[in-house]
Specification:
The structure holds two protein chains of two kinds.
Chain A (H helix, E strand, L loop, with lengths): L3 H21 L1 H36 L4 E5 L5 H12 L4 E7 L1 H11 L3 H5 L9 E6 L6 H12 L4 E6 L2 H42 L1 H9 L4 H44 L11 H26 L7
Helix pairs in contact in A: 1-9, 2-7, 2-9, 7-9, 7-10, 9-10
Chain B lengths: L1 E10 L3 E11 L4 E5 L6 H8 L7 E6 L2 E2 L8 H5 L2 E4 L11 H12 L3 H14 L15 H13 L5 E5 L7 H16 L3 E5 L3 H7 L2 E6 L2 E4 L12
Parallel strand pairs in B: 3-8, 3-9, 6-7, 7-8
Antiparallel strand pairs in B: 1-2, 1-4, 4-5, 9-10
Helix pairs in contact in B: 3-4, 3-5, 4-5
The chains are: A alpha+beta, B alpha/beta.
Amino acid sequence: MISPTVYLARHMQVMLSTLGQMIRSPMSNLMTIAVMGIALALPAGLHIILKNVQQVTAQWDGAAQISLFLKPSVTDKQATQLANVLRQRQDVKSVTTITRIEALEDFRQNSGFGEALEALEDNPFPAVIVIYPTEQSDNLVTVQAMLASFKERSEVELAQLDMQWLKRLYAIMDFGRRGIWVLAAMLSLSVLLVVGNTIRLAIQNRRDEIEIIKLIGGTDAFIRRPFLYTGFWYGLSGGILSWLLVTLSIWLLSGPVSQLATLYDSDYSLSSLDLSSSLILLGLSISLGLAGSWLAVSRHLHAVEPE
Amino acid sequence: MIEFHNVSKRYPGFGDALSQVSFKLTSGELAFLTGHSGAGKSTLLKLIAVLIRPTNGQVLVNNENIGHISRRRIPYVRRNVGIIFQDHKLLFDRTVFDNVALPLVISGLSHREIGRRVRASLDKVGLLSKEKSLPITLSGGQQQRVGIARAVVNKPAILLADEPTGNLDPELSREIMDLFVQFQQVGTSVLIASHDLDLIAQMNSKVLTLHEGKMIAGGMHNEPQGGLR
């Protein structure tokens, strides 16, 4: 029987010799690897973009705020009192009051329509109380309950929660995530077929060799081995290429993104593939390479029988 | 070492390629298999190498009935049967050494053992100096001897040769035959399919003659039909 060391040495030998064969005919192999690399880089890249968007919006997640527009009859003093009452609530982190005068001043300075205000006799602005919920109560259900309770107060003309757009964004992102999964599944399938077809051609090219090996007592496992290792190498190099493509693209985009972030007063920067995502990408690519070659080998090897 | 008991091989639509063939070849016995083309020589050899299965009868190789063994078992049977082909069946992208080493690599021998046995085998056929050559650079007779070295490197119990001297001149043919006799002398059963009647006449060995699928000389006769099934 074969000793384990010899068995291992044989695997190593086949592993290295298949790599050697691939390196000796670089052009056709590079084509296959490029197809794999690009096909995998596409979903991986979209995944990274989505992840970045999630990171940005995660910062907004704790940004639920309820604006209470008070009735015009409520004076600034009453407004401050109401703000103090609200501040006592367990689920409120902080409260900001914009008095009617402050609102007027703010408008006069920032809107550019200051002169229009001169024409008005009264201050048209209501006092506004902005309520920030605590982190524990910062979820849609609790915040909506809070909103309902504020609406019932007699001083409040209008209570408004600015979360609808966030919900819509999340729905779009969810859609995007599904889309990426569908795309990844279809491109993975195509990678599988590309590897399978390449291995099928390799089997056809080495038909004579396979026949001779079968004639002198080579087992199916022995014949399968070099093709499976070839699939492994396709998977590994395709995975590395897709990693490089994604990393390069992120690097190219990071400049404009940080510029954009600066314009929004943020120090946000694009994150690239982290270690675990990189390993998953490589692992997936290797599995696809192996599965593709396994498919081809199990379908076509039996067809090559010596006569 | 090889026993056929009432073996028939029928190809649907073509009739019987072999019919009720019985013969025995013991260890260390050398026999010729002869007959006109289409008489069933190749079919008989293919049955021993499990390239085809018998329709009827028993084929025993090393006391194992190989007529109905599983697919997975076939490689291990073939490792004990060295085959020499008329067209050599060498791998032309590998050196002489690698060609001869192939059966040992398949069997999973260590690197050192492979080197030792391949050189011994090449030495036997007189091609030790050519171990690094590619087969394409060798003459027909030399290629045939590489094929022989590969067939015997694993020390099989049985050696089959299909028209091994088909393309060789009488002198080279004689050399090849001398090699077969040497293997026979160390206990290998050797079965040589050939229609070179002059050569066979010189050898003074057992001759199995096939005619239209029936063994008309050299076989075992009068076996009761199906008696050993």
